Amino acid sequence: ISARSRGARDTGAWLALGFQAGRRGPCRALYSRMFTTNRHTVFFLALATAASALTLQSSLARAQSTLEVRTEEGGEAVMRLAEERVRAQISGQYSQTTIRQSYVNETQRQLEGRYIITAGEGARVQGFAYWNGETKIVGDVYEKEVARAVYEEVTGLGRDPGLLEQVGEGSFAFRVFPIAVGEKKPIEVSVGKWLPRSEGVVEYRMPLSSSKASVDLRINDERGVDGIESPSHQLRVSKGKEGEVVVRAGAAKSAGASEFVLRYRPKAKPWQLTSYLHKDKGHDGYLALTLATPKTAGDSKVSAKDVTLVLDRSGSMSGAPLDNAKLAAKAVVARLGEGDKINVVLFDDGVESLYSVPRRADASTREEALEYIEAVEDAGGTDIAGALRYAFKSQTKDALPNIIMFLTDGQSSSQDAIEAAKSDSNVARLFTIGVGSGVEKPLLSRLAKEKRGRFTFIESPKAIGTRMKTLYAQIESPVMVDVELVIDGVSLSRRYPRSMPDLYKGDELRVSARVRGEGLAKVVLRGTIAGKPVELRSQVQVAPSKAPWVGRLWAESRTDDLLEEIALQGESDELKNEVIKLATA
Fold it and tell me: What is the β-pairing status of strands 111-118 and 66-71?
């Protein structure tokens, strides 16, 4: 992985699938090691970043996987999907899914294919394979530049390579050449993803390309599960061994269903703090903690607030990103209460605003705000730091809490933006909202953390309504503040998030950490609810145990933190090498 430096566009993960290419060229030593015993070798670089590297193709806007094929001359062609199978294992709330699809070349031409899958925000590729006849070609893990060099050299020799790249948030594309006349080409991709709870409900989604797809899931959750349902498919639910729940999808509920959706509720008590552990003998363990707040939370109530919408209109937001940002901004204006105040700030390489300070959100003010947002057009460069300083200075010092909602793709100087946030003494909370496929998630995530807010990613127009509704409902009603995590009996290191955020109605807190020591660990989460101090308790026996997904979850959090540092402070060998080490591990 060559992690992104400021201004660079080349992130993403690559996978090269190599047929024996000989022993010459820049990868000679690598070929000597790899091609001694195997006729086919697959190179796989594990995904270690969720940042988008390239602009999404229009086909990726749909929640779907597909194989696009062309002839060697570039002409369009079609391969029939003969079989599709989805197998998923959900442990706790971590899903590991294997998607296998088989395509048939029924043309009379040799073809080149580009396989595309959109697995959703936060998805990480964990494995990849394809078949040559009856031979399954499985991936090994190598660093990106090596994989790319192999692909380019093998392609030039007319051999049988492939290359997997990340092309957007949770979206991946795989190129394979050649596909022979009459060949059946099975492709298998494995992805891992944490399934967050919203208002107590866990949701699993997976794109489907065939109405006849076979979908099987197995759920293992020590809390138990309830309310299993699917808005997309008929379900057959049964009990497996040791409390496992087995779910098989039947017919789709609508003819045009392009994804499988499953929802269920863990049988957790209100404010239940749950702990998970993985520990190999002789090594420090991995700990995951999760807590979901109730949909209705006691005495919490909606409070009036000053809302400043900051909208990025720079050239990098041109097209769909700006259109989506405008829709999201309008959704916020529509939810304003009579006691709220509103202002709209626009920025590119300069800054302007609707008002000098937020104004009371009466009918006239809301109409002016909507008209102002609608008229926004893209132009110019991007100066996030300048926009932040302007927004902070425009806050009023009244009794209402100050909320800044910052809609952007984050394409700007990271260090200047972070310095602007750190140097501000205003108590305003900053909620960053990433829009589009080229979002600089490390920057926007760090900015939100600096100002006690949240980062929200909006990947498509379909997600705007749900994401903005959830975000604004949270902003209206914080239910637990001044959160602090304490653990006795063992010690924690490299804990993520580094600082505990406020919690909201229907919200979920997830913590990942390394844990040193053995014995009974007592976990205490302290905070304030409705002005009263509370303590939530859990305990876990730290001893050798197997739950590998807990380690993966920590590695993802650690990698995200490292990539934030690289994006914000610049690349160093130490940080880069740790990212690569975590990815390959």
Answer: antiparallel
Kindly report the three-state secondary structure assignment for every residue of 164-203. Answer: EEEEECCEEEEEEEEECCCCEEEEEEEEEEECCEECCEEE
225: which 2 tokens? Answer: 């599960």
For residue 493 the two structure tokens come to 């290191």
Please give the C-alpha separations between residue 180 and each of 264, 427, 461, 556, in angstroms, as whole numbers: 44, 63, 39, 38
Q: Are 529 and 298 in contact (CB under 8 A)?
A: yes
| DSSP of 216-253 | EEEEE-TT-EEEEE-SSEEEEEEE-GGG-EEEEEEEES
Torsion, Cα 236 272 220 514, to 10 degrees, reads: 150
**Paired residues of 524 in beta bridges:** 486, 537
Examine residue 497 and say whether the peptide bond preceding it is cis (omega within 30 degrees of 0).
yes
Distance CA 95, CA 64 (A): 18
252 residue type, one letter = A
Q: Are 47 and 165 in contact (CB under 8 A)?
A: no
Location of structure tokens 């394409």: 411
State both tokens at 411.
């394409």
Average per-residue pLDDT in the chain? 82
| Tens-digit pLDDT profile for residues 491-527 | 999 999 887 888 887 788 999 999 999 999 999 999 9
**Which residues make Cβ contacts (< 8 Å) with residue 282, sequence separation at least 6?**
none
- Number of residues that this document lists for the chain: 585
Bridge-partner residues for 345, per DSSP?
310, 353
Which residues are registered as beta bridge partners of 203?
263
- In the chain, what are the helix, strand and coil shares in percent, each to the nearest 5? 25, 40, 35
Q: What is the pTM of this model?
A: 0.74
Q: Are 511 and 289 in contact (CB under 8 A)?
A: yes
Query: Among residues 52, 54, 78, which one has the least CA distance to residue 66?
Result: 78
Contact (CB, 8 A) for 217 and 244: no
Indicate the SS3 state at residue 89. Answer: strand
Token digits of residue 349:
């390489």
Q: How far is CA 265 from CA 203, 536, 543, in A?
A: 9, 21, 29
Torsion of CA 543, 273, 453, 405, to 10 degrees: 130
Amino acid identity at 90: I
| 8-state DSSP, 57 | P
By C-alpha distance, which of 516, 539, 517 is closest to 289? 539
Spell out the residues 6+ positions from residue 159 whose beta carbon is closer than 8 angstroms to its own.
Answer: 18, 19, 20, 21
Question: How far is Cα 225 from Cα 213, in angstroms, rounded to an integer?
Answer: 25
**Each residue's pLDDT tens digit, 330-385:** 999 998 987 899 999 999 999 999 999 999 999 999 999 999 999 999 888 999 99
Q: How far apart (Å, rounded) are the C-alpha atoms in residues 505 and 477?
A: 7
Region of 565 (left: φ > 0; alpha: ψ -120 to 50; beta: rest) is: alpha
Q: Are β-strands 162-168 and 402-408 bridged in parallel, bridged antiparallel, or unpaired?
A: unpaired
Cα separation, 22 vs 537, whole angstroms: 60
Candidates 361, 370, 359, 420; CA nearest to 395 is 359
